[in-house]
Amino acid sequence: MTSRPPLVLTVAGSDSGGGAGIQADLKTMLALGVHGMSVLTAVTAQNSRGVQGVWELPVAAVRAQYRAVVDDIGVQAVKTGMLATAALVETVAELLADTAAPVVVDPVGVSKHGDPLLAETALDSVRGKLLPRATVATPNLDEVAQLTGVHVVYESDMRTAAEAILSYGPRWVLIKGGHLPTGREAVDLLTDGSEEHWLRAPRLDNRHTHGTGCTLASAIASGLARGLAVPEAVREAKEYVTGAIGAGFALGSGIGPVDHGWRFRA
Predict the structure, then answer these.
(1) Per the database record, which ranges form the Pyridoxamine kinase/Phosphomethylpyrimidine kinase domain (predicted)?
(2) Is 176 tagged catalytic?
(3) Is 213 known to be catalytic?
(4) Is 96 part of any domain?
(5) Is 205 contained in some domain?
(6) Which of these is catalytic: 213, 223, 248, 256?
(7) Domain assignment of residue 263, yes or no
């Protein structure tokens, strides 16, 4: 009999174009050897050009999906993505409080195309309810500014950003510096306030990067479910995402996705 793979649950929105959201999460989990499960929070009409519409699911539907999975199957790591509204953020935070598994919080605020995916009224709930549940929080620089007011211009500003996010209670924070003008490198900072890990990778000349944030957070959760310590899980996830960006491909007439299956074709 085949042994069961580790179990990872994603709580996020759907991307009908398949590059980000639930679809990216489940592809990443499959590629990294874990069993992916899902709680859908919102449906988007989305393609390579942007988000054309968003429909949030009722709180009761989100709670029922979560309980159905966790109470019967169990879970060894949870990843959260698009939560859209304050009511959904608070519901998910409440569910996480009753789950004994590491949690990766990707505090999704806007899409790759700049479309809003989190209501302004939900920011306090993210700060006060969701981030304290996080084993690792993974904001990009736009999300750092949205949540803390800290604007990262230089690499040295990333420490200030990390301190600001850590003040809301996550155990670790990964400040993603992909939007920094850092020349040939994509630089991220992982810290718990005492340890610091600077992760560097070549900056790849590929515009097809839709889904990088979802993919990275899901890859971290997959590593945690496999029993890796946070720094090792993040390091492996960064390596996986760098390869996926390098293999990103054109899709439609806008920004294409990263290639979640790049290792199968390498």
Answers:
(1) 15-259
(2) yes
(3) yes
(4) yes
(5) yes
(6) 213
(7) no
- Amino acid at site 150: V
Q: Is the pLDDT of residue 115 over 80?
A: no
Catalytic residue (choose from 27, 79, 129, 176): 176
Q: Is the pLDDT of residue 202 over 70?
A: yes
- pLDDT tens for 175-189 read 999 878 767 888 999
| Average pLDDT score over residue span 16-40 | 97
What's the CATH number where 154 sits? 3.40.1190.20
DSSP string, 93-132: HHHHHT--S-EEE----B-TTS-B-B-GGGHHHIIIIIGG
Catalytic entry in 135, 148, 209, 215: 209
Q: Which range marks the domain in which residue 246 is found?
A: 7-252
Tell me if 154 is assigned to some domain.
yes
- Rounded to the nearest angstrom, the gap between the alpha carbon of residue 17 and the centroid of all alpha carbons in its chain is 17
Asked if pLDDT for residue 250 goes beyond 90, the answer is yes
Query: How far is it, in rounded angstroms, from Cα 229 to Cα 182?
Result: 28
Whether 27 is catalytic:
no
| Tens of pLDDT, residues 208-225 | 999 999 999 999 999 999
Total structural domains in the chain?
Answer: 1
